Fold these 3 entries.
Entry 1:
Amino acid sequence: MKVLFNVNHPAKVHLFKNVIKILQENDINVFLTVIDKEVTSELVKNFAEENDIKYKIIGKNLGNIFKKAMNVPKIEYELLKISENFKPNLFVGGCDDLYVSHVAKLVRRPSFIFDTNENAKLLHILTFPFATKIFTPCCYETNLGNKQIRYNGYHELAYLHPNYFTPNSEILDELNLSKNDNIIILRLVAWNAIHDVGEKGISQENLKKYIHKLEDFGEVLITSETKLNNDLEKYKLKIKPEKLHDLLYYSTLYIGEGATTASECAILGTHAIYTNTIKLGYLNELEKKYNLVYNITNPKNMHIKALNKSLELLENKNLRNEGKKKQKKLLNDKIDVTKYIVNVIENYETLVEK
């Protein structure tokens, strides 16, 4: 059996990395194609070299929508060439992977798409009609019809479940911090994805207005997809991308526009304030059911509400311990998503026939 995975975002490298390792251990032939975005190619390079994974970079996730659209034929042509040589039995992609669904349809092979983003309606129109099956968390708030298969988990559990992730405290030494320090992570996104059009978060100007108040409670660090203003540059986090999850585990609070990072924090038992007008089912569940994420999505008062909520949470001296207790409940409720994905891939023929 041969399986071709495509990744177009750093989070998708994490989503599939343990799946790929297990499949290879089970004598399934795997090939990984990569569309570079942020640190995607660096993550893939490190992972592939450590685990002897065959991969190829087939394109780059370009800035604006026009460039993205013009780049689709080139990426799909590269993916088609690889598929003609590799001859996969199954194609697998993450959120909105139109490339996988198109090329798989063209070569008459099934494709499985793992999606979490209800908001990406245009990409869904371009992707879902060509996909064979679409896997979503149970909390996904859109009914996709007969192709949809729901499971009781989150993408982030595929790599942050304790079965696969153990935090390494060496990151604290690297940053001259300790387990007793309050660490506050801020995140800014680039707003260049198709589903980001018209959406908003907290501007750098608003961050400047209250960042000094956060510093009263601990060490403030910023991770950003976009260039920071000069006065924020001193807060920029400078670590290897594969170490970020270690830092998130030991952090006290996350405030940011990145949905994936907010969910990662919740699964690691770190409280997160999500500041983005995009509303997502899994973040809604993480707030309502586990009280680990706080969704602040109204652009009119976003920066004020985010600041007030941040200060309210940071006043709680036991915040980090409370987060780890909530994490235990979450982990008891949810499945091992890596095992689930391995199972559906190894039994793909049964699912395709349905």
Entry 2:
Amino acid sequence: MDASLTVTVDPSTLEKAENYARQNNQSLPELVQKYLQFLANLTEDEEPEMSPIVRELAGVISLDSSSDVRAEYHEYLSKKHNS
């Protein structure tokens, strides 16, 4: 027995998702169901597969635990725009 789900998304996201589904010869509900099945089948310690580009970039930047990236970026922007 199927269950019903109501989801609210912004119009831009909905349009992009509908286009993606159409390009892949699927309905939007079918696309959502397949994605939810994919997520439901992951084990607790398993993460979704990364794309090759993301996998290549993962771990490129290493930060020490004392780094406050947001504060450093804020300081950089302040200097850049106040000089």
Entry 3:
Amino acid sequence: MALSNMQVYNEEIRLRTIELLGQKLTAFNAGSGGAIQLIPGRWMGNFDKASFFASVAGAQRRVVRTGANATQAATPLAESELVGVKVAGGFGPIIFEPSQITYLNDDPQNAINSIAEGFADALLADQLNTVVASGVAAVENVPALVNDVSALTSGAGALTQTAINGAHAKFGDMSGMLVADVMSGAAYHKLLQKGLENGERLFQSSNVTIQSILGKVFVVSDIPALTDTSGTPDLYKVLSLVSGGLIVDGSSDIITNIDTTNGNERIDTTFQADYTFGSKVKGYAWNTAIASPTDAQLATGANWVNAMSSTKHTAGVLTIADQAQ
């Protein structure tokens, strides 16, 4: 493997990563029922904004046909805005020695595939962890969308289908729009333990599993935002989403570089990548005073503002339960 070929291999790793990621996104989007959508397209700047006319349903009123014809205040037609935020990340550097490959008479493509596969898995995990953390924070910041049973005792505070159904009820007559429940592996097995049968496996990649149970898709992944051990008791969090409730886009914005270094006993080569993607929560607007946010900022509910007049038109609902029950 000639050192002059390293930049060629760099481009192959980048393209192979995008190819692998695209395959994973297609499978994931189909398996999750579209509740979490991972989209490769790009967008410019720190924020992605979409304006819409706010509801004028409040202009409906009762009319009294008798008596004086009183003056009626007008309802202004106003616009609201949904805002997604761009998140920046990196991968590597990954260090290896070119002579390791040539010494073993190995195919350089194997190294390319190994790095690309690892990068694609890491990027997919980062996207899911980030957008779910954003969704949990946004929804939990709206009390009307949260069914928190964790303070109840004698088993009433446990994670059950009843507790999740109580969260779904927060959407009232539009609860049928909730297509997927996102939970940790421990939470999922807690439900199985309480009598649910294992359903059809729809998708699996690394540390993400999607199941269909009782007609509802369960997205199972040990995403940090789905458990809370910061207080007492430890909590499970289950995020129930509508189609398109969470969106990751701009995931094809990937810059990679391979650098060969002299000066050591043997030649070293490092691979490194920078990437960005957008995190969007349906019905919410990100605080545009914060660009290139940290994980802590993304997981702060106050940074996601409900932009809809009706909570039924937002991303979904949240169940919070006691892990110990």
